[in-house]
Amino acid sequence: MERRTRGRRARLRRHPRAADDWPFPDAPFTFVNGIEEAVGQAKAYAGDADVSITGGNLTGQALAAGLVDEIAYSLAPALLGTGRRFFGDYVGPELLLDNPRVVEGDRVTHLHYRVIR
Predict the structure, then answer these.
(1) Which of 55, 61, 84, 110 is 20 to 30 A from 14 via CA?
(2) pLDDT score recorded for residue 28
(3) Cα–Cα distance between 73 and 113 in angstroms, integer?
(4) E strands of the chain, at which residues?
(5) Rounded to whole angstroms, how far apart are CA atoms 55 and 50?
(6) Cα dist. 105→58, 72, 108, 110 in Å?
(7) pLDDT for 17
(8) Are strands 109-116 and 101-104 parallel, antiparallel or unpaired?
(9) Is the whole-model pTM more than 0.70?
(10) Facing residues of 72 across strands?
């Protein structure tokens, strides 16, 4: 997870090390135990700003925990042929998404969906 606000950055590593094994003691990182704690700390850190979770397993965990309000996709004209699942190993309830807000760009289309609860 990463959120930049007022020059600050919050990031959640997918496979975090133990805090005592971190080789950069002066780096501004916080080690947490789970997605709920990570999102809670990121929201406190961000204040009134949004918190973003960047794809993959972290987003899948946040979706399953009911912590996601909006999903944003950026579609670009590239065929990769292989890769990772967009939401990792998501195991959770079916979610409905609202109609998208579409932002067209140069060779990219941004789609923003609100999660319906």
Answers:
(1) 110
(2) 67
(3) 8
(4) 2-5, 8-11, 70-75, 96-97, 101-104, 109-116
(5) 16
(6) 27, 14, 5, 8
(7) 55
(8) antiparallel
(9) yes
(10) 112
Q: Phi first, then psi: what are they for 97, rounded to 5°?
A: -115, 145
Query: Is a pLDDT exceeding 80 seen at residue 72?
Result: yes
Whole-number Å distance between alpha carbons of 56 and 85: 6
Cβ contact 43:68 at 8 Å: no
* Residues in the chain, overall count: 117
Residue written as tokens 């998404």? 97
Helix (H, G, I), strand (E, B) or coil at 45: helix
| Torsion angle in degrees (nearest 10) through CA of 61, 63, 66, 71 | 140
75 in Cβ contact with 112 (< 8 Å) = no
